[in-house]
Amino acid sequence: MNKIKISLVKNSLDQEKSVRMVVQVIFNDNKDPDTLLECVLDSVNELDQLIGYEKNIRNEVSPVPIVPNLSIVDSIDKFYELQIQRYDELGENVKGTVEEDELDDKIFNYRSSHGIAWVLRGQEITDGLMGLADGKYEFSANDDFKQCQYIIDIDSYFQELKKARVEYLKITSHN
Known about the structure:
By secondary structure, the chain is of the alpha+beta class.
């Protein structure tokens, strides 16, 4: 199973001495790691919030059925494409049903508690999701920054986040 590696680097040129975080997938077949995202951490609270998503990521499934051979992200995108197509066919005065509004809320809540980008708002990073699909955990993204679907060891992700939190506090305590 592919592991996650998180590295922190102090931005020494930055006046505020922020910390850069690099999240990579380490493949079990020894090919070169793939960088999932690079971002700037402004506070330990960002890591705390990502760690706080653990229960949701481990236990919640997508409110939209996962389409065979598609990732979580692509399945959600496909749902929205079909919804827009349906609205286009019915005309511009169509209103969503209560059930559709509730499903939209569930999708929003799912995306906001399974995506790193939600914590790091304002940064230009991939809008990937981590979640459970077909009994396995995946990281998937399909945007201008990254297109991928990786089966990952979710334990390694949360272990790395917790180590990164300790490292962040060490790095920033020397300011």
